[in-house]
Amino acid sequence: MGECRLNHSVEDVQNKLAEQAPFLPGDRAAQLSALLETDFSQEQLNELFHLLKKYDLASAEERLNRDEQMASFLG
Predict the structure, then answer these.
(1) Distance CA 38, CA 35 (A)
(2) What is the mean pLDDT of residues 32-39?
(3) Nearest Cα to 46, choosing from 74, 6, 11?
């Protein structure tokens, strides 16, 4: 992922999650949505936003990579 100097708010991430939810595997969208109700650092918000950004356009291999990174947020 390229570095972005813009800080994304919880609302930005929630909106991006809602936009990409139909493309995420299983109940990943619900899990991430619940997780966003907790305290997230600015760095974590930015990282999650960029994992979700254009997820629908990513190759299958890139999606798997992003899925693994998103899973790390879920513990």
Answers:
(1) 6
(2) 92
(3) 6
Question: Percent of the chain, pLDDT > 90?
Answer: 84
Query: 58: burial class by Cβ within 10 Å (0-12, 13-18, 19+)?
Result: middle
CB atoms within 10 A of CB 70: 20
Two tokens, residue 26: 């299983």
- Rounded Cα distance, 30 and 6, in Å: 25
Q: What's the CA angle centered on 24, arms 66 and 50, to 5 degrees?
A: 40
What is the average per-residue pLDDT within 9-38? Answer: 96
> Residue 21 has what DSSP assignment?
G
